[in-house]
């Protein structure tokens, strides 16, 4: 009779949990527009009332069943009852917060109460635990009812099941039953608590399952093993094993707290990093679009140089950080031109010496602006030197050979190629094969000869045609920039030397 009663109650519990999950799934759907709700009515008020009534009725039924099943033999010996009660209520001091979900050691103590005392003490201890938690956290309304219902139902039903199994189990089989009941009850406990939260607050129950339940599942399995071992030890060695288990549980809770706090810290860092990446990308786009308002070719040129330079840096075997520096510098290499007068920036006529001196200032002006941004030191160095020449006749500092940063030498190759092949540059547009020949002509004097060879053989990949495929999609390069942005936060490691 007891076995059949346990199965019926357990089936009812599963049905309730599944109904909660289904309701939560409905809550995940988009809410109707606010104007459809009658004026003056609280959203989901009917759902809250129905939930509260259902919870109240079920709670009364569970408490009545616990009182009916209670017997003197379940409350003996008193020292064991007191120890388990202390474990259940005292472990809530080490409550763990995981996003919107709280994990406490009381659940483990309740499983011990199910296994060693019986269904009635386990249910009433669960009720006491929920009430103490409600007083500490000031839980009210349907959340309080749901907690009371959850923490009385699982202990009652789990106690009934374990009591029925204990009478027929062989040696060691009862510990396996405790392990199984622990995991199943833990899952259903999560579904009732989390499902109720999602019904009233909306959101995705699946996301909460992945973000809260799955990360701590290995720890819950370990806790289930510990609980099963404690029950087995109690039957084999005596009550003192429960005291040892309580000590081990305290250590376990501290370790689990450290795990969840570390996970929350990592998620917060990732969230803030993503926000910074989005802002960084937005600022880059804003700067380039500002330049493009004055010179429509500026955004296209920046995207093309960034693309070619990134490809060349990869072909040269540079580290991910150096590739990120090169790509960022490619987008911002002409930032200093913002200070140029319109007739110099946009004009295509021959410039006077004074105007040429102004143009030769743009690498230094751009680098000075970039140095104001934290983490842009290497980018500023590349921008500053991207017009230096291998023979030392470049500007602004007249650097030569290996004194020029590798990132700047890569930018120089990419920029010269785009200027030669673009229809909107100040030069007459060249076909691809002629532009490649021109690069080879200035290799070793203006440009790094090794980089020119890599660019021609690995980046261009034999594009010898009169129609050049221009790589100039600013939006695509901003997406690439967002992907490589994280590499700028790591240590700067130089790639293999180029000779």
From TrEMBL:
Ranges where the HD domain occurs: 298-420
Keywords recorded for this protein, A-Z: Membrane, Transmembrane, Transmembrane helix
The keyword Transcription appears for this protein: no
Signal peptide interval: none
Domain of life: Bacteria
Boundaries of every HD-GYP domain copy: 276-471
InterPro entries membership: HD/PDEase_dom, HD_domain, HD_GYP_dom
Pfam families linked to this entry: HD_5
Sequence intervals crossing the membrane: 52-71, 78-96, 108-132, 144-166, 172-191, 240-260
SMART domains per the UniProt record, alphabetical: HDc
Keyword Transmembrane helix among UniProt keywords: yes
Protein known as: HD domain-containing protein
Coiled-coil region: none
């Amino acid at each position: 009779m007891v076995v059949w009663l346990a199965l019926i109650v357990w089936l009812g519990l599963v049905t309730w949990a599944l109904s909660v999950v289904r309701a939560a799934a409905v809550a995940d759907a988009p809410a109707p527009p606010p104007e459809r709700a009658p004026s003056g009515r609280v959203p989901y008020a009917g759902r809250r009332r129905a939930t509260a009534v259902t919870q109240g009725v079920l709670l009364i039924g569970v408490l009545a069943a616990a009182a009916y099943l209670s017997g003197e033999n379940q409350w003996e010996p008193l020292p064991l009852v007191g120890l388990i009660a202390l474990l259940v209520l005292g472990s809530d001091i080490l409550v763990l917060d995981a996003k919107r979900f709280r994990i406490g050691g009381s659940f483990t103590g309740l499983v011990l109460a199910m296994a060693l005392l019986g269904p009635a003490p386990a249910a009433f201890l669960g009720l006491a635990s929920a009430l103490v938690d409600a007083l500490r956290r000031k839980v009210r309304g349907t959340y309080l009812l749901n907690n009371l219902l959850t923490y009385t139902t699982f202990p009652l039903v789990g106690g009934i099941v374990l009591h029925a199994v204990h009478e027929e189990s062989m040696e060691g089989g009862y510990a396996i039953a405790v392990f199984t009941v622990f995991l199943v009850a833990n899952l259903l406990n999560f579904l009732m608590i989390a499902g109720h939260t999602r019904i009233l607050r909306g959101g995705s129950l699946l996301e909460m399952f992945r973000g809260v339940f799955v990360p701590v599942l290995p720890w819950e399995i370990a806790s289930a093993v510990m609980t099963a071992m404690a029950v087995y030890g109690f039957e084999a060695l005596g009550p003192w094993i429960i005291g040892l288990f309580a000590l081990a549980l305290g250590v376990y809770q501290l370790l689990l707290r450290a795990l969840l706090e570390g996970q929350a810290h990592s998620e917060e860092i990732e969230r803030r990093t993503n926000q910074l990446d989005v802002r960084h990308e937005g600022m880059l786009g804003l700067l380039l679009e500002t330049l493009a308002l004055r010179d429509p070719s500026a955004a296209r040129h920046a995207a093309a140089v960034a693309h070619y330079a990134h490809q060349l840096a990869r072909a040269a075997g540079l580290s991910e950080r150096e590739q990120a520096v090169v790509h960022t510098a490619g987008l911002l290499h002409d930032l200093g031109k913002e200070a140029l007068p319109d007739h110099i920036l946009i004009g295509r006529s021959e410039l006077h010496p004074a105007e040429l001196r102004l143009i030769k200032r743009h690498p230094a002006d751009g680098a000075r602006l970039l140095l104001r941004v934290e983490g842009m030191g290497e980018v500023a160095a590349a921008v500053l030197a991207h017009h230096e020449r291998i023979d030392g006749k470049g500007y602004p500092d007249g650097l030569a050979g290996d004194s020029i940063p590798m990132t700047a030498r890569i930018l120089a190759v990419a920029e010269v190629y785009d200027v030669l092949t673009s229809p909107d540059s100040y030069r007459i547009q060249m076909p691809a094969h002629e532009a490649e020949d021109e690069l080879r002509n200035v290799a070793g004097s203006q440009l790094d000869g090794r980089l020119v060879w890599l660019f021609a053989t690995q980046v261009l990949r034999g594009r010898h045609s009169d129609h050049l495929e221009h790589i100039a999609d600013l939006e695509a390069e901003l997406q690439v920039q967002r992907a490589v942005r994280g590499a700028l936060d790591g240590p700067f490691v130089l790639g293999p030397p180029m000779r």
